[in-house]
Amino acid sequence: MKLDEFVANFADQFDDTDSSEIQSSTVFRNLDEWSSLTGMAVIALAKAGYGKSITGAELKACVTVEDVFNLINNK
Amino acid sequence: MEPYNPFTLQGKQILVTGASSGIGRAIAIACAKMGSSVILTARNAERLQETLSLMPMNDHQIIPADLTSQEQINALVDQLPKLDGMVQCAGVGSRVFCKTLDQNAIDYIMKPNLEAPILLQTAILSNKKINKAASILYVASKAASSPAIGNAIYSASKGAIISYAKCLALELAPRQIRVNCICPAMIWTDLIMQDGLTREEMEEAQLKYPLKRYGQPEDVANLALYLLSDASTWMTGSAIELTGGTQEL
Q: Mind listing the pLDDT tens digit for each residue in A3-61?
């Protein structure tokens, strides 16, 4: 799994946030559109896109998009 | 002073599936009369053209598709503009006794009535082809809550789409996108004429309805106009029965 590809897929979970606003260093919880629903979408992305199960608690511990990438990658 | 019209669809882009006949055709025509641009889809291009010929001119578009095919769903969605409204109207009916139901009979109903609209919705959402504050409408049926002999799978398909739509309403609410269902009782369309009953028998049967008649496609279209317009911006997750007063089909 490549980081830039993951960042693009992560950005795709947002409807109103422009993908240019989302980089690997982005603190995603600060995005206006971030919500529990987007969180569920990211968990679904890990499962459907990468075949990895991550929990809400694990996602909560992540700060940047790269943290989520590492979480999934290390599963 | 402009006449008061809270139901205007002026400037909206609305997709109608099943627009080649029956309720879908009536909804497409009504939307056009209310000022929207309509994208008409169904399998039969010729009959879509007939629907188009009955609509006031505007920036309408015909995109024929068989929505039970994922490739054709994808091709349709690729061609769509961003939608302000969509009506999932395509569907089939058939009456089969439970003791003779087999996989084919289940698929015949479930694929067009349940799977196709769900997969089309997925494609529209994931390709971001729907605007904020749009209105999504499913034409379900009173059959979902009114049992009738031979109608088990049809009723189940409509009950399932209502349950789906209510969950979808929750997921799209943060973007002010609304999702509602219309549940009509018997409407004079080709679909009810396939049940093996003659027109005369149904003319007789409709007198059991409190309002003494089955519905017309236009009766459903008028409710669809309300649900697609900004008059209903506080309504989501609802399944509205439209029945001429009947509790049974």
A: 999 999 999 999 889 999 999 999 999 999 999 999 999 999 999 999 999 999 999 99
Please tell me whether the interface predicted TM-score (ipTM) of this complex is above 0.85: no
DSSP secondary structure of chain A: --HHHHHHHHHTT-SSS-GGG--TT-BGGGSTT--HHHHHHHHHHHHHHHS----HHHHHT--BHHHHHHHHHT-
Which residues of B are less than 8 Å from A16 in CB distance? Answer: 132, 175
Measured CA angle at B182 (ends B181, B187), to 5 deg: 150
Active site residue B164: no
The answer, for B82 touching chain A at a CB cutoff of 8 Å, is no
CB contacts of B132 in chain A (<8 Å) are 16
CA dist., res. B66 & res. B54, Å (int): 22
d(CA B57, CA B202): 36
Does A37 sit within 8 Å of B171, measured CB to CB?
yes
pTM of the full structure: 0.92
